[in-house]
Amino acid sequence: MSIARCNNVEDFRRLARRRLPAPMFNYIDGAADDEWSLKNNTRAFEKYELINRALVNVAEIDTRTHVLGCDMPMPIFLAPTGGGRLFHHNKELAAARAANKHRVLMAVSTLGTTSMEDIAKATSAPKMFQVYLHKDLGLTKELVERARASGFTSICLTVDSPVGGNRERDKRSGLTFPPKMTLATILACAIKPEWSLRFAINPEFKFANVDHALSKEGKASQGIMEYFNNQFDRTANWQGAEWLAKLWGGPFAIKGVLSAEDAKIAADSGATAIMISNHGGRQLDGSAAPVDCVRPMRDAVGRKLELIVDGGVRRGSHVVKALALGADAVSFGRPMLYSLAAGGEKGVDRMLTIMREELERDLALVGCAKVRDLNESYVRVRA
Ligand SMILES: Cc1cc2nc3c(=O)[nH]c(=O)nc-3n(C[C@H](O)[C@H](O)[C@H](O)COP(=O)(O)O)c2cc1C
Predict the structure, then answer these.
(1) Which of 23, 94, 106, 184 could form a disulfide with 173 if both were Cys (CB 3.0 to 4.6 A apart)?
(2) Whole-number CA gyration radius for the chain
(3) Which atom belonging to ligand 1 lies closest to the Cα atom of 27?
(4) Mutate to test the pocket of ligand 1, among 132, 279, 293 (most ligand atoms within 8 A of CB)
(5) How confident is the model at residue 219 (pLDDT cuts 50, 70, 90)?
(6) From atom 27 of ligand 1, which residue's Cα is the shortest distance away?
(7) 6-20 pLDDT per residue, tens
(8) CA end-to-end span of the chain, whole Å?
(9) CA of 280 to the centre of ligand 1 (A)
(10) Is 90 exceeded by the pLDDT of residue 191?
């Protein structure tokens, strides 16, 4: 199968599985414990059905919106994901170039393997930098100042990771950062020669945004779970969010909120947006599907906050449902990573093209010419 024959996110997933050694594929594809939340995130969209309006002029479809202080060509953007070097030799840069082409916002993870400065050179589209409240708040502050200096347009604070989730697929596959060549890894890599050759030519793997701080501590080669468990401040509270909102002073999202009560506190703490997310099911298994939290949260905060749904979005019709339920935009992680692994920049480019086409077609079919006009009259809970 080639990229040209990928017609949906599941096709990219299958191609990624063919291209990547099993530990790397499983790192993207897996989640916490029994992976119930992972499955439920997408399944939850099936609870809602669309009610199309008839005989509406849909000759011109307008997918433009304004979220996080930026004009966007469509209400879809790339969620922050760490570890890009594991999935493609061009790492996050490949995704950034595709985002630039589509003018789509890219969120960049603290735990990326390309520095935020290099990503800023690759895309002039809006950019979000994702941070955590580190035990060393000086490091969080430094990252925020660097994001400002590099022209990032918003930041988000991930709050669903006071400790690392229990990702059993990674335990089974023995994945480490950087990947260590154990017998099992060597066998897994041997049957994926293209990926392995690229990795042998350039085995460099580093958490490019924080490598300097880790090297100072002599911990440059720690794993992502170790990073979660060693570096994040488990005593963090809403004052930390307030501090960050003031420090940044611009569009500020809190990522990983499911509770309507927390959304109200976030609004009072200086947030301008919530990314309704359970980290793609990678943290607390059993946590609610983000799409199910949209309506209660919108009811709780009114128009005080922008709401972004993140988790399980795989189809244009999922975007339509999320927005009809009250969200302002959606973002996704795995669709970007599957397409990155499947074909680098070209893969992400094609995936974004497919999502845009699906969204445009679904808006025409639902009888709503402007994405910003979607409202609850287009959706209902299935009987
Ligand atoms: C491989 C991988 C790495 C991720 N790394 C981060 C990260 O560094 N920071 C973060 O806030 N979220 C991270 N996420 C979560 C995503 O931002 C997003 O919440 C999640 O992928 C949404 O679910 P989806 O994959 O079903 O779209 C990661 C997700 C994946 C799959």
Answers:
(1) 23
(2) 20
(3) 1
(4) 279
(5) low
(6) 332
(7) 999 999 999 999 999
(8) 39
(9) 6
(10) no
Homologous superfamily of domain range 3-381:
Aldolase class I (3.20.20.70)
Higher pLDDT pick, 53 / 231: 53
Angle at 257 between CA 251 and CA 262, to 5 degrees: 90
State what percent of residues in the chain have pLDDT above 70: 99
Pocket test for ligand 1, best of 282, 314, 351 (most atoms within 8 A of CB): 282
| Ligand 1 pocket member 80 (CB < 6 A) | yes
pLDDT at 215 over 90: no
Residue nearest to atom 15 of ligand 1 (CA): 279
Residues linked to residue 63 through DSSP beta bridges, in sequence order = none
Task: Catalogue the active-site residues.
Answer: 279
Residue boundaries of the structural domains of the chain: 3-381
- Token reading at 250: 């611009």
**Ligand 1 neighbourhood includes 154 CB (under 6 angstroms):** no
Residue 47's SS3 state is: helix
H helix intervals, the chain: 9-19, 22-29, 36-43, 91-102, 116-122, 137-149, 168-173, 183-190, 193-201, 211-216, 224-231, 238-248, 260-268, 290-301, 316-324, 334-366
Helix (H, G, I), strand (E, B) or coil at 21: coil
- The single residue listed with the structure tokens 């287009």 is 378
Beta bridge partners of 66: 71
Token couple for 108: 């960049």
Q: Rounded distance, CA 334 to CA 330, Å?
A: 13
Using a 10 angstrom Cβ sphere, with 0-12 exposed, 13-18 middle and 19 or more buried, the burial of residue 203 is: exposed
Nearest CA to ligand 1 atom 19: 279
In the prediction, which pLDDT does 232 show? Answer: 86
C-alpha–C-alpha distance, residues 205 and 221, integer Å: 9
Asked if the model's pLDDT at residue 217 lies above 80, the reply is no
Regarding the beta carbon of 310 and ligand 1, being less than 6 Å apart is answered: yes
When pLDDT is cut at 50, 70 and 90, the band that residue 224 belongs to is confident
